[in-house]
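It is worth pausing here to work through a concrete case rather than discussing structure prediction in the abstract. The textbook approach is simple: state the sequence, then state the predicted structure, then interpret. We follow exactly that order.
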Amino acid sequence: MLHTIFNTEIAHNQSTEINSIIFGAGCFWGVERKFWSLSGVVMTSVGYSGGDHESPTYELVCAGITGHAEVVRIDYDPAKISLLDLLKVFWECHDPTQGMRQGNDIGTQYRSVCYCNNEEELALVKASLEKYQSALSASSLGSITTELKINQKYYLAEEYHQQYLDKNPNGYCGIGGTGCEFRI
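Step two, the predicted structure:
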């Protein structure tokens, strides 16, 4: 599968110089577009994670029977962009207080999730969540419902979903933040 933005095969680098994180913030099309343009991001792909079905498909995930969320896997060079910078974009690009939905997209597959690789990253994610929750609370907004876990298996979504909004510039993108910003 050719990545239309990076013009290379979709392959997630396991190099020790490259880190990865998985974000779910509603429809994966818009979330992927949000991250592929960031300097320091070297690969993105959309997929499914957080459930218990070994062979998820879009149809099964949308039916709500797999437990998976629509997610984006992001590989990034930490010498060029920090995990905190990625987390700031993640928190601000969607409404993490909505539970099992984002806007008009309703269902467990649209829940807010952040899946990282180890306890150190999880501690950083939790600290950023607390900081963003303070900003949300100061703006009289709700409580964050984002699911945080370590080492969740990632399943690559079907080819037609990869870089969907690059291939279909007028396609639907349901992500939108709360309008609340915070300093990392």
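Step three, interpretation. The longest helix spans residues 119-138. Strands lie at 2-3, 8-9, 19-25, 41-49, 69-76, 101-102, 105-106, 112-116, 147-150, 154-156.
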